[in-house]
Amino acid sequence: MSSHVAVRSGDVPRYNANERVTHWIVAITFLLLAASGLAFFHPAFWFLTSLLGGGVWARILHPFIGMVMFVFFALMAMRYWKDNVIQSYDREWNKRLSDVINNRDHNLPEIDKYNIGQKQLFWTMIVTMVLLLVSGVMLWRPYFADAFAIPLIRIAAVVHAAASFVLIVGIVVHIYSAIFWVRGSMRAMTRGTVTHAWARHHHPLWYRRVTGGSK
Amino acid sequence: MQSLDVQKRSATTTASPQVRVAEEPVAKLIDISKCIGCKACQVACMQWNDLRDEITSHPGYNNPVDLSDQSWTVMRFAEVEGKDGRLEWLIRKDGCMHCEDPGCLKACPAPGAIVKYANGIVDFVSENCIGCGYCIAGCPFNVPRISKKDNKAYKCSLCSDRIAVGQSPACVKACPTGSLMFGAKDEMVARGAKRVNDLKERGLAQAALYDPPGVGGTHVMYVLPRGDRPDLYGLPVDPKISPWVSLWKGITKPLLAIGLGLAVLGAFFHYVTRGPKEEEPGGKS
Question: Cα-flanking dihedrals φ and ψ of residue B88, to 5°?
Fold first, then answer.
């Protein structure tokens, strides 16, 4: 782990300031995109266009915000892909999903920086972000859509909606886990550190790796 | 001016104001066998609607070559080799077909940007348009065009403003040969059928009325001398709303909206029933 993270004594550094800023740029752009995108998707969400200044502004801004999200997500993907390679102990962990869901954590095998749920979300995000970028450019008026045949634009619209749905559901689980379910996780992305107890409990292999093998 | 005769309204889940029930469906009938390609309809359209397209020149009769935000109707000229190698010069007045089941309206995400009146006219209420271009994806006839000036979509309104006060569309009024007719849809269908019979008696065995059922019929219909081959005129043979658009704007909408709701509720009830994960203070070793 990078040594330049300001660590309060007794805490384990997890994300440095750079990583946190990148994450929150992706998070904020995601929220704006989900709000305006849902508004275009279903009239029940139309009121969300007000967040971006009305329907026309939402239409104008949505794709530009999308580009910002994609670029910063790409930075995260490059930084974290190695930590998200699925290992044999992850598969073992995955077999005990009911223990995970029912908070019987003592039955679980030891894992590294991310659990398999986080890893699956990571790869799902890679796929959906690429689909959203490609289909989004095809739908982008007035700049790019004219360059594509109308039948292709129709398919792009379905792909964009489906990929957004998968991504939004994934992020609902992500937000729930980080803020409500797994206590003590949120501070990793706000202050940058977690407690020793948290790290030892949820990510023992990672904990030993970053603390130099001490138990 | 408000409308009390709105049958369908884009991106709206409740009933539209439709207290006026006595309105009769209308239609424009374009009898291609009488058309001489004079473009009076094009001129009348730009005059009534105060539109002025860019002046360009083209080698050929198509001018302007395509529909645009400033050209809501254009004449399309096609030279095809007909029976016995004879030249057939096919001329068609192109523009919005005013579908009974409009794909543009189905695709539009902006509440009230596209409406369909009780008389069947499909109208763009451009002040509600956000410029997303979904109507272009929804249309089976490739009709709507987005202005480069204001990023709003435009198309033929069937002169809804003239019809509202009992006038016929500007193009119909200007047509010198009687190729364009306007009236109640039933009447226009009957008149079209009669004309098709006349043409058949005169040796045009393939003549047919073009009122495609795939989009529920249209409020702009053609009498086609070559009714067996609408494609020769640049018309789709069996137009319908693309299955991709139906998927996107049909079952997907409630399904994904409910799916999202369930995900959020699922998370909430997981918290309520299972509670948070808390590490043992001593730590497990």
Answer: -120, 130
**Fold for domain A14-85+108-210?**
Fumarate Reductase Cytochrome B subunit (1.20.950)
Whole-number pLDDT of residue B3: 76
Tokens of A84: 């998200």
Count residue pairs from A and B with Cβ separation < 8 A: 137
Contact B244 A157 (CB under 8 A): yes
Backbone angles phi, psi at B75, to 5 degrees: -85, 130
| CB contacts, 8 Å: A161 with chain B | 248, 252, 256
pLDDT (tens digit per residue) in A82-113:
999 999 999 988 888 889 999 998 888 999 99
Task: Find residues 109-168 of chain A whose CB sits inside 8 Å of chain B.
Answer: 139, 141-142, 145, 150-151, 153-155, 157-158, 161-162, 165, 168
pTM above 0.95, yes or no: no
The minimal CB distance from A153 to the residues B137, B247, B263 is found for B137
Q: What is the mean pLDDT of residues A12-26?
A: 97
Q: A163 CA to chain B: closest CA distance, Å?
A: 11
**C-alpha to C-alpha distance for A214 and A86, rounded to whole angstroms:** 25
Q: Where exactly are the structural domains of chain A? A: 14-85+108-210
- B267/A184 touch (CB, cutoff 8 Å), yes or no: no
Looking at residue B44, its amino acid is A
Longest dimension (CA), chain B: 99
Tokens representing A16? 């440095």
Residue in A43, A154, A173 nearest the CB of B267: A173
- Give CA A197 to chain center in angstroms: 24
How far is the C-alpha of A210 from the C-alpha of A190, rounded, in Å? 19
Task: Give the pLDDT band of residue A213 (cuts 50, 70, 90).
Answer: low
pLDDT in tens, B176-226: 999 999 999 999 999 999 999 999 999 999 999 999 999 999 999 999 999
Among this protein's residues, is A23 annotated catalytic? no
- The Cα B222–Cα A116 span in angstroms is 61
Q: Which fold has domain B6-241?
A: Alpha-Beta Plaits (3.30.70)
